[in-house]
Design a protein that fits this description.
Structural class: alpha+beta
Number of helices: 14
Number of strands: 18
Strand content: 15-25%
CATH class of the largest domain: Alpha Beta
Shape: globular
CATH topology of the largest domain: Uridine Diphospho-n-acetylenolpyruvylglucosamine Reductase, domain 3
Number of domains: 4
Distance between the termini: 23 Å
Helix content: 25-40%
C-alpha cells in the first residue's frame, strides 16, 4: 500500500467542546484505579500522538486515552464508556489516511500500544498468534525467524499495527498472489462495544461451524468491535526473488504483460506494479531515484516473482522475459541480478513516500477500477483535474496529478495538488468530487485498501448500494445500539 506520509504536529489543536461531566470524570478515575495510573491518561496528560491519525485533519483533545494491557482491560474500558455514555475510538499505529482512528472532542481513545508482541508461533499449523498492537514489521520478522513468511507488506510496516491493518483490510504490494489482509487471518479475539469478549483463536484452514464471525470485524474500521488478538496465516518462505523493470508502449501492452505473467509465471508472480510517465518523471528527475530503464516510454512495469529454488526459478524467469522481448512486447527491460537490484527497482515504486518533500503539499487517493478500464480512467481524470477552476488561481492553472498502482489487483493510486498552496488550502473538495465522480462512472470503488473513515464517508454511496449501506447500519445497530464505538465512521 502506498500512501504519502505527513505530520500534523505543527497544526494548532482544534477548539475543545464543553468540559467533561462529573460522571465522565468519576468513571475515568474509577477505571484508572482498576487498570493503573499509566493505563488511563486524562485531559492534558493525553500524548500528542493520540490526538490524531495521519489523515491531514486538525488534531483534537480527546477526554482521555486508555492503554489496556489485554482484552480484559479493553472490556473494562468499553464497559466504563457505555456506563457514562462516552464515545470511544480504537487506535493502533495511527498511520491511517482516512480518519478512522481520529478521536473527536470528548471521546476516549483506546490505544492498543501496550498490547504488542508475539504470543505463539505454531509451525505445524503455520500460524502466528499476536496482539493487535504489534507493528507489522515485528510480525514479519517473527515469521521469518520461524522459517515462514507473512505476506502482508506495506510502506508503513515499521509503525502500523497489525490490528489496524485488519480493521481496514489492508492490501499492500503482494495482493495479486496472497490476497488482502482478510485472507491472512484464521482467528480473532474481539471485544464488542458492550465489553463482551469473543475469543475465537482458530488455527484451522477449514472451519465451517456456523457464521465466519471474524469477517464482521475485518474491514469494519473499529466500528463493530475492537480486535485484541489475531491468529495469522503464514506461508512458506520464498527462497529466491526475481524482478524485472519493464517499459512498454501503452496500456494494451500492460494488459498483455499481465496476462503473460499470470500464465507464464503462475503462482510465482508476487507483484505487478505499473507507473505512468508523469509518475516516472517525478521520481527519476525530481526525487532523483536511479532507474535502470530510461525516459520516454508510455508505461513502466515492475514485475516480481518469488520462487523456492533459485537454480530453477531464476532461469525460468529469465527465459520468460526473453520470450517477451522476442515477441516485441517489451520496449526495454532490466532484470535484477541481486537483492540490491530488486530493492533498487522497488525504490522507484516506494518513492511516493517522499512526495511531500518532492512535490510539496498534496492529497493522496486510493481507488479501485476494472483492470481493463484503468488507463481510460487515468486519462479522463487527469484532464478533468487540469480543467478545474481554482479560486484565487489563474484560469487554466488547474490541478496537477500523477498515477501509479498495483493494477494487477485493480488498485490505482493517484496524487493530486495545486502548486503553491498549503495542505490546508488544497482544493480537496473539488478533487474529491472530480475523482470520486469518475470512479462512480467507471464502476469502481472509492477505497481500495485505505478504508473509509470520515474522509470518504460522503462518497460511500458511489460504490455501495442503498441496500448494502442499510445492511451495514443494521449490523452497527445490532452490535452497538448506543452508537458509542467509533461513531460517524464508515457509515
Amino acid at each position: 500500500m502506498t500512501a504519502s506520509a505527513n505530520t500534523n504536529a505543527s497544526h494548532a489543536i482544534a477548539p475543545t467542546a464543553a468540559g467533561p461531566t462529573a460522571l465522565a470524570l468519576a468513571t475515568l478515575q474509577a477505571l484508572r484505579a482498576e487498570l493503573g495510573h499509566a493505563a488511563v491518561l486524562i485531559g492534558d496528560e493525553v500524548p500528542e500522538r493520540n490526538r490524531n491519525d495521519n489523515s491531514s485533519q486538525l488534531p483534537v483533545r480527546p477526554l482521555a486515552v486508555v492503554r489496556p494491557a489485554d482484552a480484559a482491560g479493553v472490556s473494562a474500558a468499553l464497559k466504563a464508556c457505555a456506563a457514562a455514555g462516552l464515545k470511544a475510538v480504537p487506535q493502533g499505529g495511527l498511520t491511517g489516511l482516512c480518519g478512522g482512528a481520529r478521536p473527536e472532542d470528548g471521546w476516549v481513545a483506546i490505544s492498543l500500544e501496550r498490547m504488542s508482541g508475539v504470543q505463539e508461533v505454531d509451525s505445524a499449523s503455520s500460524t502466528l498468534t499476536v496482539w493487535a498492537g504489534t507493528p507489522l514489521e515485528v510480525v514479519q520478522r517473527a515469521a521469518d525467524a520461524a522459517g515462514l513468511y507473512f505476506a502482508l507488506d506495506l510502506g508503513a510496516r515499521g509503525s502500523c499495527a497489525i490490528g489496524g491493518n485488519l480493521s481496514t483490510n489492508a492490501g499492500g504490494n503482494r495482493v495479486i498472489r496472497y490476497g488482502m489482509a482478510r485472507e491472512l487471518v484464521l482467528g480473532l479475539e474481539v471485544v464488542l462495544p458492550d465489553g463482551t469478549i469473543i475469543t475465537s483463536l482458530n488455527k484451522m484452514l477449514k472451519n465451517n461451524a456456523g457464521f465466519d464471525l471474524k469477517q464482521l470485524f475485518i474491514g469494519s474500521e473499529g466500528t463493530l468491535g475492537i480486535i485484541t488478538r489475531i491468529v495469522l496465516r503464514l506461508h512458506g518462505k520464498p527462497r529466491c526473488t526475481m524482478a524485472a523493470l519493464c517499459a512498454v508502449d501503452g496500456y494494451d501492452s500492460v494488459l498483455a504483460l499481465l496476462n503473460a505473467a499470470r500464465s507464464g509465471l503462475g503462482p510465482l508472480l508476487s507483484a505487478f506494479e505499473v507507473m505512468w510517465p508523469d509518475y516516472w518523471q517525478v521520481v527519476t528527475e525530481r526525487a532523483r531515484v536511479q532507474a535502470a530503464v530510461g525516459q520516454g516510454h508510455a508505461q513502466y512495469v515492475l514485475v516480481e516473482a518469488q520462487g523456492t529454488d533459485e537454480a530453477v526459478d531464476g532461469p525460468r524467469f529469465q527465459a520468460w522475459l526473453e520470450a517477451l522481448m522476442e515477441r516485441g512486447l517489451l520496449k526495454d527491460a532490466a532484470v535484477a541480478q541481486s537483492l540490491a537490484d530488486v530493492q533498487g527497482f522497488w525504490a522507484l515504486r516506494d518513492a511516493c513516500a517522499e512526495f511531500f518533500q518532492v512535490i510539496g503539499p498534496h492529497i493522496s487517493y486510493d481507488v479501485s477500477l476494472p483492470i481493463g478500464r484503468i488507463a481510460d480512467f487515468a486519462r479522463d481524470c487527469k484532464a478533468a483535474l487540469l480543467a478545474c477552476d481554482i479560486a484565487g488561481r489563474p484560469a487554466g492553472a488547474g490541478i496537477e496529478s500523477i498515477y501509479y498502482g498495483h493494477i494487477g489487483d485493480s488498485n490505482l493510486h493517484l496524487v493530486a495538488w495545486s502548486d503553491g498552496l498549503s495542505l490546508a488550502d488544497q482544493p480537496k473538495a473539488q478533487m474529491d468530487a472530480t475523482i470520486y465522480g469518475l470512479v462512480q462512472q467507471y464502476g469502481g470503488s472509492v477505497s481500495a485498501e485505505h478504508g473509509i473513515g470520515t474522509q470518504k464517508r460522503k462518497w460511500l454511496g458511489h460504490s455501495r448500494s442503498e441496500a448494502e449501506i442499510a445492511l451495514m447500519r443494521t449490523l452497527k445497530s445490532a452490535l452497538d445500539p448506543q452508537g458509542l464505538l467509533n461513531p460517524g465512521k464508515v457509515i
